């Protein structure tokens, strides 16, 4: 393992379980299998919060997403990671996260075991400027059309395809 005391340590996963630890930069450079979370934020009207990632993101820069999330840190429980990520990216706190299940995702940019969640939030959304360039509440049917029209991150679309299909019905 690298000996950079300031490096963010990421939990490496295999078959849905933690098997090791590596610095984030190595996980990205070698596309190592790790764990990540994704949280769909909805309001009580049923709208979904959609945002555009900043151009400086290391994976899928400038693309649209309907999930907040990120890597699970070494020693971190997936639910704690999801709560941390949705708070950091969108300022969503103090809401229960409901599990949507687990799945695996892999492409040339990312390879991970996903822990999927949703929550309901009617408070103020506060973007993390390094991660979010734009965002808005979107009606579910509009989200389904936006995915066909705009450049969305492939992982959220692939991982939540059944959920998205229900929006299109």
Automatic annotation (TrEMBL):
Which cofactors must be present for this protein to function? Mg(2+)
Please tell me whether the keyword Hydrolase is annotated for this protein: yes
Instruction: Please provide the record's keywords in A-Z order.
Output: Hydrolase, Isomerase, Magnesium, Metal-binding
Q: Which GO terms describe its molecular function?
A: isomerase activity
Q: Does the keyword Metal-binding apply?
A: yes
InterPro entries for the chain: NUDIX_hydrolase-like_dom_sf, NUDIX_hydrolase_dom, NUDIX_hydrolase_YfcD_pred
The record, for SUPFAM superfamilies, names: Nudix (SSF55811)
What Pfam families does the record point to?
A: NUDIX (PF00293)
Q: Which residues form the Nudix hydrolase domain?
A: 32-160
Organism, per UniProt? Answer: Isoptericola halotolerans
Q: Which family does it belong to?
A: Belongs to the Nudix hydrolase family.
Task: Report the PROSITE patterns cross-referenced here.
Answer: NUDIX
Q: What is this protein called?
A: Isopentenyldiphosphate isomerase
């Amino acid at each position: 393992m690298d000996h950079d005391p300031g490096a963010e340590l990421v939990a490496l996963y295999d078959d849905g379980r933690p098997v090791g630890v590596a610095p984030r930069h190595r996980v990205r450079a070698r596309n190592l299998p790790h764990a990540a979370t994704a949280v769909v934020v909805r309001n009580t009207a049923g709208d979904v919060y959609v945002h555009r990632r900043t151009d400086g993101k290391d994976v899928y820069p400038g693309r649209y997403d309907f999930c907040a999330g990120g890597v699970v840190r070494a020693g971190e429980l997936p639910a704690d990671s999801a709560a941390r990520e949705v708070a950091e990216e969108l300022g969503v706190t103090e809401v229960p996260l409901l599990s949507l299940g687990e799945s695996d995702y892999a492409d040339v940019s990312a390879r991970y075991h996903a822990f999927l969640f949703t929550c309901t939030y009617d408070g103020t959304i506060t973007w993390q400027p390094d991660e979010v360039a734009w965002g808005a509440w979107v009606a579910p049917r509009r989200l389904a059309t936006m995915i066909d029209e705009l450049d969305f991150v492939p992982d959220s679309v692939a991982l939540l395809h059944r959920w998205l299909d229900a929006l299109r019905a």
